[in-house]
## 1
Amino acid sequence: MTDNREARRGFWRENSLTLTFGLAFLVVLACQAVTGHAEFNQQMVVDGLQSITLTDYLASSAFAVDVSENWQSEFLQFFLYIFGTVYLVQRGSPESKKVHKVGTESDQEQRMGEHARPDSPRWAGTGDWRQTLYARSLGIVMGGLFVLSWTAQSIAGTAAYNGQQLRQLEDPVSWADYLVTPDFWNRTLQNWQSELLAVAAMVVLSIYLRQRGSPESKPVGAAHTTTGIEG
């Protein structure tokens, strides 16, 4: 019994970062659903229409577009950051690798092919297409998630936009036409700019500021010019 309790404690401790942020995500998403539902019904009343239930709102394009437009910007942020940090560096930032390591690095540095270790992922040592694919798998998946969520945003956005058009007694538009509307690009670009600003701020501020114990910060006593080390 004691061993089981210890195992459970160990599981929560060893996965606390993922579990905490996963739970926080669900809580915030639930709060967004509640507040979004209230705002949506307020607009329905203004338009002289009947309000809808929370269940109906969760299945609506209005909720889907609000969620997906945030997801796509987050996945874009990580996609650009993952690929950008292969070739781009920032002297003094722990978010950057060392200046002399610009590029994809050698097989030895990446523990690939004949340099793979016994505990390395199996595909890292294959030396064929599997190794090539696995060596870029994180960026590829993040890019794919961005494309999927961006597509979901455009589809849900079309439905939400057309719902508004019909309430205003105006003609609906096609998906292709919606992609060139100010509504679509305003939703998209307002998220992109905020994500890019956040990345730039993190890269620059981490040169001069510290957070003791965080892997996103350099050691407290590290010089400002020290690059590519974490505390």
## 2
Amino acid sequence: MDLRLAAYAVCIEDGRVLLARHAPPEEESNWTLPGGGVEHAEDPFDAVIREVAEETGLEAVVERLLGVDSRVVPAGERRLPGRPELHNVGIFYRVRVTGGRLRPEPDGETADSVWIPLSEVARLGRSSLVDIGLALARTAPPTGHVAPVPVGGLVQH
């Protein structure tokens, strides 16, 4: 089993959410939250700010911890065939943009970063991380946990 610890940014302003279009080589692109893997010895709090800057060109500050999502992606549902199941632990933070300018990730897998009206998110091909982050931001559960998001149709792992 693979294990991934990641930090994700939920940035909502004026009825819009900041999303990044993940476009890895030889795979179908989808929309996701800015964020990604926590590096060795890196604090997830610092990782989410680094990831926002790398993927979007924006500077941000963490406003609060929203919650943690832990899920196992079966081997047969991984984007790359032949990989073992993946245990993904995602830490979600509410962030606020303080500066910078939107741009694609240089030499990375984020092809685009845009502000999307919340009312349009349901029509996007997206990662389940988007739905999890928005549910955490909307409900602010005291436990920091929301029910699992079903995967299928426009919502993928």
